[in-house]
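Throughout our pipeline, every protein is held as a single compact record rather than as scattered files. The remainder of this section carries one protein's record, kept here as part of the documentation.

===
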Amino acid sequence: MSSMRNAVQRRNHRERAQPLEREKWGTLEKHKDYSLRAKDFNEKKKRLKTLRQKAADRNPDEFYFGMMSSNTRDGGQKVADRGNKPLSQDVVRLLKTQDAGYLRTMVQKERKQREKLEQVFMLGDGEGASARVLGKSSMVNAEGQHTIFVDSREEQRSFDPEAWFDTDDKGLSRRFNRPRKVVGAPEDEDEDAVAIPKGTKQQRSRRLIDAELRAMKEERALRKKHRREQEARKVKLEALKARETSLMAAEQELDLQRAKMSNSVGGVNKAGIKWKVKRRKK
């Protein structure tokens, strides 16, 4: 019979929520929450009562020798010894030397990473970086000349490279895969738009046109990928520069502390008085 009673689904017990007009006071307090809060309040009340009784029964003439070495902060807080043994001057100087060596090593490591990333970033800023993967093509930043021969001086003076190569100003700076102009296209066309090559004397085949369009789409995708990679490199480069600057500042501060410990430089003492090391006249 008990198994059948457990098999039947029972009504879920739901606790009453906080009313909407009291929602600003947080969740509705239950009995268990009130019990914990009341217990904590009574314990604190009992502790305060004990402390007040001790303060009332205190002897103003009470004395013990620990009062000679102990002191208090502002507000009556007692400053006690934590049991930490002070290190000697030589040990502290040795520890600071090891810290300086670690900082120097980290600065060199960050500097090498920054210089390497700067070289890759500068190589990627070239216009020819869209030619496949950065750094794997020898034609990316190569320099060369394209010589065009004409028949007369007049043709040389009236020579138009954009009309000869059938491209625009951006295409003239490239040595290969120059984008062709679109017949009847507006001048403010998007640079990422795919340009359909203009037909030559013989009619181009549909397969050749599709191959050129596919190559242009791949080149546009490579340009976008390269642009995203350059943005990621720029963010990482700025982070490396900031970290290197912080490490160098920490190293300089540590060197200054070591110099002050060896009395080789001046400074400001706790009283705010400036002092400097007196050097022997030669």
